[in-house]
Amino acid sequence: MKTKIFFIVLSFFLFFKVEAQHFISKAVIEYEVKANVKKTMGSGAFADMIKDKMPEFKTAYYKLTFSNDQSIYKFDHWNDKIPEFLKRWYQSEENNIWYYNYSSDKCAMQKNVEGNNLQISDSVPKLNWKLSNENRIIAGFNCRKAQAILFDSVYVFAFYTEEITLPGGPASFHGLPGTILGITVPRLYTSWIATKVSVTSVNEDAIKPLNQKKTMDYKQLEALMHDRTKDWYSSDDADENKEIQQQKARFIWGSLL
Question: Residue 199 sits in which domain range?
């Protein structure tokens, strides 16, 4: 009899524990996006001349607004400590927009490249993630680590939470069984980290496809980026030429993400 009562009480406890778990399907997530300016500039006569006038990092804040399987990710504001000249230098980044509809497997982006707003429309790319057992708390959520390789050689390290159901995250990062709250791309010297998650006052009307006219897909965008960089200068010095090629690669990768 005591055993029977014990299992009844245990069943009620487990039931209420499961019911108490809340999975977030609608929210606004703020991300701090931090890039090492001096390292992304690389080396060279011009870079070496102005590096001492540059801060080490530029920090911006973006917001991911989502409801169920749709999301939109946009620039929000710069860190107050960013000097005005640096804001102007990177002003084009304020125009970038990412829209995803995971139920229809469609995505649309607006990327400002060299002063031009490019419109990209395609199916959601597949990323091959490998999960690990490492965990970390980000913005109050328990997150699990995952990693992937982009563009054949660029390692990406992410932390995602299953407590938020959107299979997306900042910029073009997605494809995990939950929402990405933290991500680092060492070769771009850039990190994205969620600073807060708000489940109130979600403007669902803002989550809509972009008003696009002339669009291209990812392959066309990549081809365009390679074409725009084909005439980048080269050097007879092996080390300098290697740095130039790295700068070119970072420009292309950043445009595609």
Answer: 23-216
What number of other Cβ atoms are within 10 A of residue 195's Cβ? 12
What gap in Å lies between CA 46 and CA 34, rounded to an integer?
23
> Which pLDDT band, with edges at 50, 70 and 90, does 50 fall under?
low
Name every residue whose Cβ is closer than 8 Å to that of residue 184 and which is 6 or more positions away in sequence: 156, 157, 158, 190, 191, 192
> Does residue 29 lie within any of the structural domains?
yes
Residue with tokens 């791309």: 185
The residues near 103 (Cβ < 8 Å, ≥ 6 apart) are 68, 69, 70
- Residue 191 DSSP code: E
**CA 180 – CA 138 distance, rounded (Å):** 10
Q: Which residue has the tokens 């006569």?
A: 45
* Structural domains counted in the chain: 1
Q: What distance, in Å, lies between the first and last C-alpha atoms of the chain?
A: 62
User: What does the angle CA 18 – CA 21 – CA 27 come to, to the nearest 5 degrees?
Assistant: 150
- Residue appearing with tokens 């929000």: 76
pLDDT tens, position by position, 145-176 = 999 999 989 999 999 999 999 999 999 999 99
What is the Cα–Cα distance from 64 to 75, expressed in whole angstroms?
A: 9
DSSP 56: S
Residue 189 falls inside a structural domain: yes
